[in-house]
User: Which sequence fits this backbone?
């Protein structure tokens, strides 16, 4: 048979020097397939690109498994470097670049509450549950450190998947809350994970807890500052030298390189690179993006989105392919019942751990919000709880880091890795599939918005978008309609809690924009009503 | 001192696990520096980005050398994979994407003559010269194979550097000849190099020569076909599924991935990947590019240019840094006089080898050209000879491949590697610096063109460009001016030698465009004069 010959040839080549070329070919071809299939399935509201990529990855894994007679199911060894150095930066940077800044900063305190305190609560519940249940189950030798690690690993929300299931234009509040939480959560997870590895956690006391808090604050503030500085530097350079005069390509290259430099510098200083590149994206979209030529704007907007899109697909394709890796399943295949039990328990703990902080913290957050429209109602709380349940590639990478350094053949380690994979696959596929319908059922008012926004997702920074939004906003205001979101936005703007934003705008216009550029190069003139309206959406 | 402490820290880190992060940081920062400095030096007509990058790379090499007390001068080990798998594809694809197709295909036979026969002549002269001179010089044990390899290595024109010193808009004929030659030349070099490694070349007879010819033709035709097929497939998919309906990012991602896939497939089948991706770029700009949305067009145009730009700077930065690597110079430093002698002899052979085919083959090519304006005059021949003298990263990569596999400490091998580096540096810096002024002195008529074209270099495929060119063209025609280039173009179009192009256009409009799309989705209507005029520039 033709195919079997071809597969045998591929098999032969995979063990030779040529193997990297073969696997890259297959990977690139599979990426193309994912894009085409994802496009064809776009009409079905249940599907999204992640699940398509996961499914294609799983199928490919099965094919490779059969071809190699059960020896291997993957084309490359999962490398943390590949993930953290090449795939994650474009995704997070793009999220910062395209996030609705106003929405994000308005909910800043709630996001911090969810991201920092919430992660701690979730971590505590999962770790405690794992200690109590697994110690009775005889799943192999696991230290206290391992139980704490699994808590930290499964507290890391998958911001990549969140980006796919929630739409910034449809549900701006939820998007900013859940995604913002995911970003802060990452910093918390990194601190937690490093703390577990380095601190002596057998006897936790108040000193260690304080040290831990200090560590988190230090990490958070320094990472943010680095990102902001990198963004401002890029804005200043582009404004001062005016690259567009000679070539658009230089501007685009400089923006990409500076963004990447901020990420790598954060890695260099052992900071949270994800936080850094996120804030770098925000600053770049606020200043640098307005300083470049028009074609650079179009290019950067789409380039960052494309890079992020490809990186996302790559991750899910890889996770799907890697899930079948036979070595890891070998140890646990003797006791399939126990394996399923462990996975279900962990999944249950994830569900409880998230519920345990979303609802109480939402209640707390609501206490500070005076307007009725501002409050996070129960339906929204359920959506926040649900949309943050997905676990993704970050969890997988951390699990590999923790449970393969020591002998991977150990029963306990094997159980932890396979359970993590099961939780990742199950949560991504099942929760991911159900999120879109759930949002539509719980929050039907968003339909109106879905129809008014353009077909391009997550591109609020297009030139026409702010104008369009403004027009629409004014219209509904004049007609006196009481649609939930715009009117609540208007209310929000009039409340005193937004004095911080008011002062920021004053400061921005007086000191920042003259130096770093920004919309239209010129400082903001407060007497122009159009400009002011425009400003609200910035 | 602050800096010495920092450098000591960097030094310490470079030997640790953190080293890859450090070197990436430095590399990205240096890339940014190159872009900024290159921008600032743009006004000086002698400089170009390659030389800036080379200089910065050399300076960094010196700094690292001093910091590490002469142990190392580079941040990464030169990797052929990095060069051939990541850096070269975007450069060559972009060249195909932005090349003036009409100009390229009109000179196709001349390009083939230069690229295939010319490389053979150059290879023969350099190899023979090396055998005769070096055997008397006692520079260590070198086999016949090594002499032939040095001939093949130094026959590889650096198409990357050519792109930088020649301007497509200023000197379209020379650009297409020299650059096209560089691309074909690559295929010839690959064949030559592989032939030297596998054939028994001690007794060359007619059978081997024939086999060699057949091998080259096979490689050339298959590589071209693969590239054309990949391009057509992408055009068909984009046209059929119309991705822009859902998202621009999908289109951009698919174009990038398909182009890269063509390159990797060619590598997989041991073809000339450079030829493949070059033709893929040509087909994509002819069909696919016209099928996508407007924002995708702007994005892809600039993205390909930016990627190519960054990859070029990266290569020169790296070559500059690597040139100082102390290990290689250690062996030859005992006999500096001999080292300089070997390098000068090789440089002289390169000069003679190129002269030996440019002038005779130009004469041959002129015999087939009837019009006086078509002929390649002596000044142009000199420019072609000069502009193709630069040797670059391809030569370095091949030299590493040949002379480090066996023991690098061997005297002969060390001489060959250091001489190759010297030739590369000298030719890039000296010949590169002199090319721009030389072109201005020898071909002053191009000044007029330089002023009329837009400030964006190498972007002939912009929407407005064809219209602008047409307008300008029509104007000069009406005014009856006799400027060299446009009038010769007009003459060329009326000569019978372009019947091939005429039939291709007919075929394109009747069969290809209805299936694969292309400008405006609609088939070409021959009765419209504007459209026809437009067509000439396609």
Assistant:
């Amino acid at each position: 048979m033709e195919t079997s010959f071809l597969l045998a040839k591929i098999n032969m080549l995979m063990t030779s020097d040529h193997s990297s070329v073969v696997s890259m070919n297959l990977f690139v071809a599979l990426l193309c397939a994912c894009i085409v299939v994802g496009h064809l399935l776009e009409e079905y509201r249940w599907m999204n690109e992640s699940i398509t990529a996961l499914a294609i990855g799983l199928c490919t894994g099965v094919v490779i498994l059969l071809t190699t007679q059960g020896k291997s199911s993957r084309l490359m060894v999962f490398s943390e470097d590949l993930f953290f150095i090449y795939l994650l930066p474009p995704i997070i940077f793009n999220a910062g670049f395209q996030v609705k800044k106003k929405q994000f900063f308005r909910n800043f305190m709630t996001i911090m509450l969810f991201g920092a305190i919430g992660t701690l609560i979730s971590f505590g519940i999962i770790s405690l549950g794992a200690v109590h249940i697994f110690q009775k189950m005889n799943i192999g030798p696991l230290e206290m450190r391992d139980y704490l690690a699994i808590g930290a690993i499964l507290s890391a929300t998958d911001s990549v998947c969140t980006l796919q299931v929630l739409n910034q234009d449809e549900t701006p509040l939820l998007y900013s809350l859940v995604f913002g939480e995911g970003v802060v959560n990452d910093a918390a997870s990194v601190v937690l994970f490093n703390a577990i590895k380095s601190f002596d956690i057998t006897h936790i006391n108040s000193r260690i807890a304080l040290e831990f808090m200090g560590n988190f604050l230090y990490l958070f503030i320094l990472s943010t500052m680095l990102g902001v500085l990198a963004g401002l530097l890029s804005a200043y350079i582009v404004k001062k030298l005016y690259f567009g005069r000679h070539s658009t390509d230089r501007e685009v290259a400089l923006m990409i390189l500076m963004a990447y430099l901020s990420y790598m510098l954060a890695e260099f200083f052992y900071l949270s690179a994800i936080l850094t590149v996120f804030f770098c994206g925000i600053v770049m979209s606020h200043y640098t993006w307005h300083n470049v030529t028009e074609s650079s704007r179009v290019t950067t907007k789409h380039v960052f989105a494309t890079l992020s899109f490809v990186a996302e697909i790559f991750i899910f394709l890889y996770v799907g392919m890697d899930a079948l890796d036979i070595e890891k399943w070998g140890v646990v295949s003797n006791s399939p019942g126990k394996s399923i039990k462990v996975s279900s328990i962990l999944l249950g703990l994830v569900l409880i751990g998230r519920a345990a902080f979303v609802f109480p913290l939402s209640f707390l957050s609501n206490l500070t919000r005076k307007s009725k429209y501002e409050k996070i109602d129960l339906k929204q709380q359920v959506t926040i709880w649900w949309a943050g349940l997905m676990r993704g590639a970050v969890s997988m990478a951390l699990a590999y880091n923790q449970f393969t350094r020591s002998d991977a053949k150990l029963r306990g380690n094997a159980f932890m890795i396979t359970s993590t994979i099961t939780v990742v696959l199950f949560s991504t596929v099942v929760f991911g599939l159900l999120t879109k319908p759930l949002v539509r059922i719980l929050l039907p008012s968003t339909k109106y918005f879905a129809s008014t926004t353009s077909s391009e997702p997550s591109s609020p920074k297009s030139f026409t978008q702010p104008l369009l939004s403004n027009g629409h906003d004014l219209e509904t205001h004049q007609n006196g309609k009481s649609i939930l979101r715009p009117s609540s936005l208007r209310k929000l703007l009039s409340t005193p809690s937004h004095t911080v934003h008011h002062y920021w705008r004053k400061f921005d216009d007086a000191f920042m924009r003259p130096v770093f550029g920004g919309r239209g190069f010129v400082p903001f003139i407060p007497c122009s009503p159009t400009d002011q309206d425009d400003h609200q959406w910035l």
